[in-house]
Amino acid sequence: MKKVLTLLLLFSFLTPVLAKSTFTLKSGDISVLTSSGEASVTFDYSKAELEGKDISLEDYFDQESYKKVEKWERGQDMAHKDFIKRFNKKSPGLKLVTDSKSAQYDVVIQIRIINLGSSAKSWVPSAFKAGATDGGVTLYGRFIIKDKKGKELCSLRFTNVQGMAAPNIESRLLFAYQQLNADFQKFMKKASSVDSSSDDDDE
To answer: Alpha-carbon distance 30 to 153, whole Å?
Structure first.
């Protein structure tokens, strides 16, 4: 009985992590993401809504103080640059750039829903990831790649991507994008292993 109770308690702690759904292929072919070349990247918040609130991200910051908007913009700059650096370090093929002139593709990282997290929950002590992320920024959106004519080649959906908690919005956003990159790399690794096993079956 004690063993069963222990397993149930452990499962209750791990369930938020195990149930986490991140990247799924919506349309197109992911092989373009492993091809050599450069893609001009854009981070798009124009359609972003605040999770659990009937207000867009843009309208929310229109109502906030200049200081808070400044922190948000600084956080975006830090998070986006860090994402590009980490992505390019791990990517076996496609590299992200900010200059569209030399790029063969366009990548749009489109945020559809965002939870900005909470500084009040940033210091919840826990040995489990669920506790470490409690209060962190959460992202939902699309990872879209197009050719230079605007034709969509591949569309991935990401959901419930949650970064580590932190007392300030800059760090919370940075951690969320680090998690987004980590989840993307896991998805691509899993997808490539499936492709490899399919090739083996065909032989």
So the answer is: 8
pTM of the model: 0.81
How does DSSP assign 57-91, residue by residue?
HHHHHHTS-HHHHHHHHHHHHHHHHHHHHHHHHH-
Contacts of 45 (CB under 8 A, 6+ apart): 57, 58, 111, 114
**How far apart (Å, rounded) are the C-alpha atoms in residues 107 and 118?**
30
Distance CA(140)–CA(149), nearest Å, equals 26
The tens digit of pLDDT for each residue in 24-58 reads: 999 999 999 988 899 999 999 999 999 999 999 99
Question: Is the dihedral angle over the CA atoms 19, 81, 63, 49 positive or is it negative?
Answer: negative
Q: With contact defined as beta carbons under 8 Å apart, do 121 and 135 qualify?
A: yes
Distance CA 135, CA 133 (A): 6
